[in-house]
């Protein structure tokens, strides 16, 4: 960042004294374009993270009818008990790993009871929580990086223009 800032400042401040004006203007355009490119990249990455949230099976809990329908399906005898046990355990495990919410399952005896998470479920929930925290931190960092690039570009242009004006005023006084 500081190198890009110095490139902008130096290119603007040395433009007046340059013998090759076209080359000096291209250097200014290149250094400013690099900063604008960085603003665009960090801004776009932030935009993509904000607008494409990661969802899992916990999205099922957003549907108010899901739990009632799920509970009704557990009591139906349309499938073998072992198949219903397998399905209910898989759904409950997935929901627990995504959100930490415990829902009912049907056990091998045909009794509906709250899901008992396995150590793997606990580990997955912990890892997913860490990953979500890291993703939130990354999103905020990208936003901050975009802001810093904008401020740095504006500050660099301002410093470069001030140096040019100061140099011009000094040369006129001689």
Write a structural description.
Helix content is 73%, strand content 3%. The chain has 174 residues and is mainly alpha-helical. It has two domains: 87 residues; 66 residues, no CATH class. It has a two-stranded antiparallel sheet with strand order 1-2. A hairpin with a 5-residue loop joins strand 1 and strand 2.
Outline:
With 174 residues, the chain is mainly α. Helices cover 73% and strands 3% of the residues.
Order of helices and strands: HHHHEEH
The biggest beta sheet is recorded as: 2 strands, antiparallel
* End-to-end C-alpha gap: 36 Å
Shape: rod-shaped
Q: Helical proportion?
A: over 70%
Rg over CA atoms, rounded to whole Å, is: 30 Å
How are the strands of the biggest sheet laid out side by side?
1-2
Average pLDDT figure: 85
Identify low-pLDDT runs. Answer: none
Question: Structurally, how many domains make up the residues?
Answer: 2
Q: Assess the beta-strand content as a share of residues.
A: under 5%
Would you tell me the structural class of the helices and strands?
Answer: mainly alpha
């Amino acid at each position: 960042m500081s190198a890009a800032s110095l490139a902008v400042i130096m290119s603007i401040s040395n433009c007046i004294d340059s013998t090759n004006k076209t080359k000096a203007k291209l250097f200014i355009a290149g250094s400013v374009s690099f900063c604008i490119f960085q603003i665009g990249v960090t801004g776009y990455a932030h935009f993509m993270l904000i607008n494409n949230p990661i969802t899992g099976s916990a999205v099922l809990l957003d549907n108010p009818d899901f739990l009632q329908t799920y509970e009704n399906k557990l009591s139906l005898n349309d499938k073998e008990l072992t198949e219903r046990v397998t399905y209910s355990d898989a759904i409950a495990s997935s929901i627990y790993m995504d959100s930490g919410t415990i829902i009912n399952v049907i056990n091998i005896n045909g009794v509906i009871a709250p899901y008992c998470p396995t150590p793997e479920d606990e580990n997955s929930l912990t890892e997913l929580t860490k990953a979500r925290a890291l993703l939130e931190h990354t999103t905020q960092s990208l936003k901050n990086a975009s802001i810093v690039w904008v401020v740095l570009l504006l500050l660099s242009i301002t410093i470069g223009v001030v140096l040019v004006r100061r140099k011009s005023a000094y040369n006129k006084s001689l």
